[in-house]
Amino acid sequence: MGTDAITDEDLMLRIGEGDQTAYGILVDRHLSLNLGYATKLLGNEAEAEEVMQEAFVRVWKHANRWDPSRNTRFTTWFYRVVTNLCYDVGRKRKPQEKVEVLERIPSGEASAENVIAVEQRSDQVKKALQELPQRQRMAIMLCYFQGLSNREASEVMEVSLNALESYLVRGRRNLADILRDEKDSLLKEIG
Question: What whole-number distance in Å separates Cα of residue 66 and Cα of residue 72?
Answer without folding.
Answer: 10
